[in-house]
Design goal:
The complex is a heterodimer. By secondary structure, chain A is an alpha/beta fold. Chain A is 36% helix and 22% strand. Chain A has 2 domains: 194 residues, Thiolase/Chalcone synthase (Peroxisomal Thiolase, Chain A, domain 1, 3-Layer(aba) Sandwich); 123 residues, Peroxisomal Thiolase, Chain A, domain 1. Chain A has a 6-stranded mixed beta sheet. In chain A, helix 3 packs across helix 6 and helix 9 crosses helix 10. Chain B is of the alpha/beta class. Chain B folds into 2 domains: 236 residues, Peroxisomal Thiolase, Chain A, domain 1, CATH 3.40.47; 149 residues, 3-Layer(aba) Sandwich (Peroxisomal Thiolase, Chain A, domain 1), CATH 3.40.47. In chain B, strand 8, helix 12 and strand 9 form a beta-alpha-beta unit. The longest helix of chain B has 17 residues. The chains are: A alpha/beta, B alpha/beta. The interface between A and B is large, with 65 and 73 residues.
Chain lengths: 331, 406
């Protein structure tokens, strides 16, 4: 008998107010195609000396991890599993700039030490003194889903009893410019950090579980539709208003028999390789709060106003025929 | 009893050559393949490296690939090694559709990024510069390798620096155990780049002579490059299709040292936990280990801490151990799978490779394997891979024994 995987807490830093749910009632709106993150207060979480040395993504990571752990009541997770598409981009870019402009001498070790993708997950482990399983996935828009799948499998099998799972990407102005060229399907580029605490045991609040995590590399729209069952009534899709991005989602929704309520999130939180983690954050938040703000609703599939929200299905298209489906359910 | 995970294919390219047979031949011969840099364009010619002795053009020609793949050394090496693994296992198109492809890399297409970076920073980049950036993140590298083989059920990338390939192997095994796939092509690929050669150089942990793992006077790493992949398969699937079984992956674990981003704790806590958890999963007493392929980078810090961790498990009587990094250089993200192939050769061919460059012990009794041992009866091996951030992974491979007796 597989263990359940409860979502004990979620926390985010993004272009919305950090480490809170203010976006539910008063979402910040952003003009233009790129918005940086609203930085969290680090005081009380990171010492001023450490904060000076740490890059932005590392500070956001520590703050979201700290926030999620604190509200979960779990101080020491059994595992830390992280997704990041580009890792510590700011430091990598600085190191590379020095290398290209000034040659291969007089480079700064700190920039390199804090430039690998797993600097992020390691920093959390070092901060917590957590000796448990630690892994990092860097696979484009499936980085978070890969991390979630890994933790979910280990929780279900009983290998671990809790996990801190997250996804983090920082987007420098030059990376934003590059992404506009390399990812013409994007609409609004942003920076996001998300941390969630998963546990085999329910916490005190409403019980929300991760029921299924599925990654596929070779699915047609019909395959996706076939995998989505009748119970997947409310779908959080990765649509963003850009036809290049939305067309595969439209084909899936067309292939479904019954109408579904489709929610979107990328117009609120923006897009980068870690954005699918924000769908997880939104889904968990809506199930916990029993909320469904109108600005998230892209297509009303007849989910009655005031009707209880039982489950949310996250649908993420990650390029070509790669998809992920995550099912969250309120018990 | 959970599903047993078998190894039914392997492929490798490194400074030791291309293919499992060439690698075996080079190990048997016993000479280091570390030398002066030839293919990477770097000012640091004082740092010896273990390069795959082919230019990008030669790799592209061998593989029959054109741009952009021809500009992505990590991808091309990965294609060579993963193709060999899939062919050895005899996987067909139908098999791939019930398989995962999981690859570890950290630099991805950084070598190609370096070529276009100046133009990109000047904001005078051409479409070609932007086009190149489509293929340079870790996931894009993996997608290109997987796509060259066929249609996998799922594809992802681990990126935990020098333990990346080992962690890809761990995920693959967990996916098979969970029944999500029957097989997984798992490993890692990493090309030398100016980025990480210079990065390691700023940390002052590159030796300007050939590296000397576990030697008292060791001074650091020689970087290397390469790729290696294993085909992991559930016992049920392997037996059903009468696959040739190379070995069993009977234990694995990852633990975090949680001490420092680039240094290891004195008592090697993370390494100790990784090894002891992997051995516990394998269900064997430590004394039954016939060979440890150590991480053994040759830095003053790693080797003494890894020894400390081994002492905590084995006490005075260490099993035969060696670092093969003086053969290949430190192949960073690929090292976990490259050394896994070397461990498979120990099991399959009875070859325990020597630890080149050793002269004096770090501490009394800590003497690695100094001469190749041939014809050894190797039943259990431990493969260590430790990455930055204290990301420590250990794998236990064993001779496959179908009577289930341990």
């Amino acid at each position: 008998m597989a263990n359940r995987c409860y979502i004990r807490s979620v926390a985010q830093v993004s272009c919305q107010q950090p480490l809170c749910d203010d976006w539910l009632s008063a979402p910040l709106s952003h003009d233009g195609s790129y918005a940086g993150a609203v930085e969290p207060q680090t005081r009380g979480v990171i010492s001023p000396g450490d904060a000076r040395r740490m890059g932005k993504i590392l500070k956001r990571t520590v703050c979201t991890a700290y926030s999620a752990l604190t509200s979960s009541g779990i101080e020491m997770p059994d595992a830390i599993v992280t997704g990041t598409g580009m890792g510590c981009m700011e430091n990598s870019e600085k190191f590379l700039t020095d290398l290209v402009l000034n040659g291969e001498h007089c480079l700064k070790p700190t920039l390199f030490m804090q430039s690998t993708h797993n600097t992020i997950s390691s920093l959390v482990a070092i901060t917590l003194k957590c000796h448990g399983y630690n892994n990092t996935y860097s696979h484009g828009a499936l980085s978070f889903d890969s991390a979630l799948l890994d933790a979910w499998l280990q929780l279900r099998s009983g290998g671990i009893a809790s996990a801190l799972v997250g996804a983090h990407d920082e987007v420098t102005p030059s990376l934003a410019r590059i992404l506009e060229h390399t990812h013409p399907e994007y609409a609004f580029i942003s920076e996001t950090s998300m941390a969630a605490v998963l546990s085999a045991e329910a916490g005190e609040g409403p019980a929300v579980v991760v029921e299924d995590v599925r990654m596929a590399n070779n699915w047609t729209a019909e395959d996706v539709a076939a995998y989505l069952g009748d119970e997947d009534r409310v779908i959080i899709a990765g649509t963003n208003g850009n036809a290049l991005n939305d067309e595969p989602y439209a084909r899936v929704l067309d292939a479904l028999d019954a109408p579904r309520t489709v929610l979107r999130y990328k117009h609120v939180f923006g897009e980068n390789f870690s954005a699918p983690a924000m769908a997880f954050y939104v889904g968990a938040t809506l199930l916990t709060r029993q909320a469904m703000p109108a600005f998230l609703v892209e297509k009303d599939g007849g989910h009655g106003a005031g009707a209880p929200l039982e489950s949310v299905t996250l649908l993420n298209h990650a390029g070509l025929a790669a998809w992920s489906v995550v099912r969250l359910r309120r018990l | 009893m959970s599903e047993r995970i078998l190894v039914t294919g392997a492929g490798i390219v490194s400074a030791l050559g291309r293919g499992v047979e060439a690698t075996y031949g080079a190990l048997l011969q016993g000479d280091s393949r570390i030398g002066r840099v030839r293919h990477l364009r770097t000012e640091h010619v004082e740092c010896p490296v273990g390069e795959v002795d082919m230019s990008n053009e030669e790799m592209a020609s061998l593989l029959g690939v054109s741009y952009p793949v021809s500009a992505l050394r990590t991808v091309m090496m990965g294609m060579m090694a993963s193709r060999e693994a899939v062919d050895m296992a005899g996987l067909d198109v139908g098999d791939l559709s019930r398989s995962a492809f999981i690859s570890g890399t950290t630099v991805g297409g950084m070598d190609n990024t370096e070529e276009h970076f100046r133009a990109l920073m000047d904001a005078e980049a051409t479409d070609a510069d932007y086009e190149a950036m489509k293929y340079n993140d870790c996931g894009a590298s993996t997608d290109l390798m997987a796509g060259a083989l066929g249609h996998f059920r799922m594809v992802t990338s681990t990126s935990t620096a020098c333990s990346s390939a080992a962690n890809a192997i761990i995920l693959g095994a967990n996916l098979i155990r969970a029944g999500l796939v029957d097989m997984a092509v798992v490993g890692g690929s990493e090309a030398l780049t100016r980025f990480h050669l210079n990065g390691f150089n700023t940390l002052m942990i590159l030796d300007t002579e050939r590296c000397r793992p576990f030697d008292r006077d060791r001074r650091g790493i020689n970087l290397g490059e390469g790729a290696a992949y294993l085909v992991l398969e559930s016992e049920r699937s392997a037996l059903a299709r009468r696959a040739r079984i190379l070995a069993e992956l009977c234990g694995y674990a990852n633990a975090c040292d949680a001490f420092h981003q680039t240094a290891t704790s004195e008592n090697g806590e993370g390494a100790f936990l990784a090894m002891s958890r992997a051995l516990s999963m394998a269900g064997i007493a430590p004394e039954r280990v016939d060979y440890v392929n150590a991480h053994g980078t040759g830095t003053p810090n790693n080797d003494v801490c890894e020894l400390a961790a081994m002492r905590r498990i084995w006490g005075e009587h260490l099993p035969p151990f060696s670092s093969t990094k003086a053969f290949t250089g430190h192949t960073t993200s690929a090292s976990g799978s490259i050394e896994a192939v070397i461990c498979l050769l120990a099991i399959m061919r009875g070859l325990i490779p020597r630890n080149i460059g050793w002269g004096n012990p770090i501490e009394e009794g800590a003497v690695p394997v100094l001469d190749n041992v041939e014809g050894a009866d190797v039943r259990y091996v431990v493969d260590n891979s430790f990455g930055f951030g204290g990301n420590d992974s250990s794998l236990v491979f064993s001779k496959y024994n179908d009577d289930n007796g341990k």
